[in-house]
Amino acid sequence: MRYTLSKIGLLLLTLWAAVTLNFLLPRLMPGSPADAAIAKLAQNGPVSPSTRAAIEAQLGVPTGSAWNQYVEYLNNVVHFDFGVSYTFFPQSVASLVGTALPWTLVLVGFVTIVAFIFGTLLGVLAAWKRGSWLDTLPTVGGTFASAFPYFWTALLLLFFLGYVAGWFPTSGAYSSSATPELSVPFLLDALYHSILPATTILITSLGGWILGMRSTMINTLGDDYVTFAEANGLHPRTVAIRYAARNAILPNLTSFGLALGGVVGGSLLVERVFSYPGVGYLLYTAVVNQDFPLMQALFLIITISVLLANFIVDILYGILDPRTRR
Question: What are the transmembrane regions (predicted)?
């Protein structure tokens, strides 16, 4: 209980620091968040003070003392109110994030979990059958696949399977003629459009899980308690899974927590290449157009998701390895 409470306290402290830093950074930057919009208007002629004041009020530029701004900001964070987007004006930031987030969670989240599970299992198998083809095939294949950057693999799949063969759609999350709804035809259409992006993420991330698990598994197999279990005549599968793999998976679990926390941020390059309407693509659009409210909301969400994922990993660590609770 003390271990869990200490982790909860650390999580709350880190969350407060992240939220506060997210409040300070835009205010430490030179200029006003409305300067970009005013600069565009100034190309057509001088902008009067009243027009500037109206734009600042419409875009929610903070006023008053720093403390009042901070209190108002915390209240807005609790209610997830980050104002309106400069790029998609007058749409609110909350509605934009709410639309993009499910696409990223389904695509990147599902593929990350699948890659971790299969990569871990293949890593265990490769280490247990070290020196055989069951070791060589996944190790060499994983090394080769992980050597390619995300965007390069995405471009290859897009060109050969999308443009040349014409087997899969080349952009978007669903057909332009489809209406987003919870129906079997739409879900099948969305699944069809997600094949290339999902395959890209799976290919480029699977190798890392295989190699990481294989390395830690080989080190664990040389420990005394594994040798003792083998000497007692336990079944090889029991030794591999219950003794070696259970401890070897701990470093991989940390990496999985970081990867799972990064799911909310999406896979920016993959979503950009395939024009997939996820958080990564939305973040790219916000950065290119200097959409500060949207960037601020996305950065905060990504930070919080990483912190929560690490908290969950810490709790799992305590369950899998009770020594960490001391």
Answer: 103-128, 149-170, 190-211, 256-274, 294-320
